[in-house]
Amino acid sequence: MDFKAQFADxxxxxxxxxxxxxxxxxxxxxxxxxxxxxxxxxxxTKRPAPGETTGGFDQTAVGAARTSDPRSLGFxxxxxxxxxxxxxxxxxxxxxxxFGIFDRSVGMQQARPFSDLTDKDVADMNTAVMDTWNxxxxxxxxxxxxxxxxxLRDFLGGDIISIGATASVASGLDDAILDMxxxxxxxVRPTAIYTNAKVVQFLIREFELVxxxxxxxxxxxxxxxxxxxxxxxxxxxxxxxxxxxxxxxAGTPTLYPTFILTERLVRWEFVRVLGNANPMPxxxxxxxxxxxxxxxxxxxxxxxxxxGGTVHHKYVQVADRSTTVNxxx
Length: 329
Hints:
This protein has helices at about 5-10, 100-110, 120-140, 150-155, 170-180, 195-210, 310, and strands at about 15, 20-25, 45-50, 55-60, 80-85, 90-100, 160-165, 190-195, 215-220, 225-235, 235-240, 255-260, 265-270, 280-285, 295-305, 315-320. It is α+β, with helices and mostly antiparallel strands and about 325 residues long. The chain has a domain at about 90-320. It is flat and about 110 Å long.
């Protein structure tokens, strides 16, 4: 007879009844519904940073030309316009966990489900780092918090387009995209709209109001096809990415930040973590003075660059609304 197992069961008992001891047990599987999707990560450009800061030059114009008399070609030349970008400092995102030998030993001795969750908890550290990255991608402010990298709100906040509660969201976004591309000096072609799911709901209702449906298409997200709503615009269908990390701004009314992006010009410039071949977070086991405990640290380094600024990208604030606005009036 296994007296050790019997003793463990008795310790866990919660009630005694006639002819039996009722023991509370658990499912042998943890229900895990943690969000582990970061769509924008798979859509933007990633490249190694040149150093501990990013830097480069933007060309915004070419030298001018003119029509001329074929026998008199004299012309005062003008030069190209090239400007140095503001340098962005590489920052770190980090998390760590420590596992004591005594707690792990007790868990293993009990020989019950979840007795040792070390592997799962270590893997989840990667998710924690990416969650912070995704939130900072939108809200990062290196002035307000020097440990953060600048996010989209900071890069594009100098030229915000507002769509009020009585204005059509579909018309407002279409007009913004039309203004972006309708110029002869810069080659602007936005490729996606990142917004709050509430804005997508506004669009669906506007289309339904005029007897139409907001179409869907298969769009690649992190290498896999995904069915997304697309917005008809002057340059064709633009996919709508509802991103829960793109949080609303509290106020009266609530505002929903919406970003029209040229994704290839949004760059995550990273420093390889001890030669790691890709920009993803990397996990290390840390040596402790107490060799029997375990500590793990997960870290990534990088900074965001938004090339082309408010010419190739736009920050739109959509106001909350209680009624649906007709997009064709």
